[in-house]
Structures are given as structure tokens and as C-alpha cells.
Design a protein that fits this description.
The protein contains 11 helices and 4 strands, in the order ββββααααααααααα. By secondary structure, it is an alpha+beta fold. The chain starts with 11 loop residues before the first strand and ends in a 29-residue tail after the last helix.
Length: 249
């Protein structure tokens, strides 16, 4: 009997008379006692059945520890498993759910935390899958506004002003981080926050927030135009360049 998992290459251990992978939970087969013939194996035994999901268990434990909504993380993990391995799906689910709940954990940090829990995860593969599965994990700027409105305890009047700004800039901001765009809208709607203070309260970079504030100010001042035929919200930088031979008004 092989001592490594045929699926992921991790070590196999004996659990309840079965050889089980320590990483992905795959059941590789039963443990045979001395003198016990393979022909005596019970009919209907399924060799490649999942006995446990170590990545899911680690994701659940980390979500509880970090104060991230467990159900949301597990639901996203389930959807991502159709497109990614267990470790990479868990890392992306942890990263995306943390952002949606107002916390911030980088994808690299999510991979590191899962690795410490004994889950095999490739950081490079996780980044590549994140790009291909972006529609599954990407929040809208309106959803990001709800997150920060709750986290910063914003008054309803300020929230409405920020939402109006987001709706106005939506055709131009399709390729930007929706959370930074939402924070920039909050800054412009308030007039009371400092860039550093708002960034610190939200756990984001003051430099990146400042860049998005200037971006929104340029849009609101009508200094950014779309080329003819450009579909609103479908891209980022390409949609913000003026056509050849023309300049922004």
C-alpha cells in the first residue's frame, strides 16, 4: 500500500482501519492485517471517498478565531471548490470573507495561516485562481460601503451621500478595489475625516486611499472620459483613457 496520497502527495495515516490523507482527507484504502487477503475486502468499498476535509476544518477554525462570519466563509469555500484545490479555495474564501466583513487579511497571509494549520496550499496557485474566479469573490462598492458604514458607525445621511457618489462614479471604477472606492466616497461625502484617520480606522493604506480619492475627484470634476463604445463598469484603466487625438475636457 502506498504511503503517500495519490491525489496530493501528502502522507497517509491509519484512522479507524483506513489509510487517510493528512492533508486532503482522501481515503486511499483499508489497512490489511497480516494474512488478510485483498479478495476478502467487503463488496462496495469505495477507495477514493472523502473521509474529512482538513482545509474546511482549518478555514472554520480560523474564521472563528479572527471573528469572520463562518457560514459566509464556508459557503464561498464550497463554491470555490468547483474551480480550485482545497487549500487554495480555503485561502481565497478566508481572504474574501475577511474583506467583506470589514477586516483585512492579505491572500498571502491567508495562505500562511492555513499552512500553519497543516493544510497544503500553493500561494502562487491561489493568486492565479483568484484572478480567474474574481466574479465569485468580488464585492460591489455598494456592498463595501455597507461594511464600512457598520464598522465606522456612519450616520444614515452620510451613507446616502456616499452612495450617491458611488452611483455617479460606477461606470468608471470597474477595475478598482471596491473597498478603497467606497472609502474614498465616504471621505468625499464627509469632509470631516482625515485621509490618515480614515485609512487607519478601516485598516487600509493611506497612500492607496489618497490615490482613489483623487481618482473620484477627477471623475466628479469630469476630467475623465470614456472612449466611444466602452461599456460602463466592464474594465479599469483601458476605459479611462481618452480616444486618440482627443483630450479630456
Amino acid at each position: 500500500m502506498a504511503e503517500t496520497c495519490p491525489e496530493c502527495g501528502s502522507q497517509l495515516v491509519e484512522r479507524g482501519g483506513l489509510l487517510v490523507c493528512t492533508s486532503c482527507g482522501l481515503v486511499a484504502g483499508p489497512v490489511y492485517e497480516s494474512g488478510f487477503e485483498r479478495e476478502n475486502e467487503p463488496i462496495g468499498f469505495v477507495r477514493l471517498a472523502f473521509f474529512r476535509d482538513a482545509a474546511r476544518e482549518a478555514l472554520e477554525a480560523l474564521a472563528v478565531k479572527l471573528g469572520i462570519p463562518v457560514d459566509a466563509a464556508l459557503e464561498l469555500y464550497k463554491r470555490l471548490r468547483k474551480h480550485a484545490g482545497a487549500g487554495e479555495a480555503a485561502a481565497i474564501a478566508l481572504f474574501a470573507t475577511a474583506k467583506r466583513s470589514g477586516a483585512y487579511i492579505s491572500l498571502a497571509r491567508a495562505c500562511e495561516l492555513l499552512s500553519r494549520c497543516g493544510v497544503k496550499v500553493s500561494r502562487r496557485r491561489a493568486f492565479r485562481i483568484l484572478l480567474t474566479c474574481a466574479p465569485l469573490v468580488r464585492a460591489s462598492s455598494e456592498e463595501a460601503l455597507e461594511v464600512y458604514a457598520h464598522k465606522l458607525d456612519l450616520p444614515e445621511s452620510l451613507k446616502r451621500k456616499a452612495l450617491a457618489i458611488l452611483r455617479e462614479v460606477r461606470p468608471y471604477a470597474g477595475g478598482r478595489d471596491p473597498y478603497l472606492v467606497a472609502l474614498a466616497a465616504i471621505y468625499l461625502a464627509s469632509g470631516a475625516f482625515t485621509i490618515y484617520g480614515l485609512a487607519k480606522a478601516a485598516g487600509r493604506s493611506p497612500g492607496r486611499l489618497h490615490d482613489n480619492i483623487r481618482f473620484l475627484q477627477a471623475i466628479l470634476a469630469r476630467k475623465v472620459v470614456r472612449p466611444p463604445g466602452f461599456e460602463p463598469g466592464s474594465s479599469g484603466a483601458e476605459g479611462l483613457r481618452a480616444p486618440l487625438g482627443r483630450t479630456a475636457p
